[in-house]
Design goal:
5 strands; 67 residues; three-stranded antiparallel β-sheet; binds zinc ion; Nucleic acid-binding protein; mainly beta
Length: 67
Amino acid sequence: MRICRQCQCEMVEGFDVKVEGAGYGIKIAEGIGIFANRIEKPKVAICPECGEISLYIENTDKISKSK
Ligand SMILES: [Zn+2]
């Protein structure tokens, strides 16, 4: 469960990210260029009270914690 940073309401999770007009969505990657290590497609949580949105990924196992 995610809590809105603005009003501390429970956010609605699981929305997909889409770039308007392109339809490709976005991906979060680690590193630069063709060697970038794709992590995961981000999801969006939306606060039904104030409209705050929050990007997150579901699987954090792939993220290196060495940084
Ligand atoms: Zn809110």
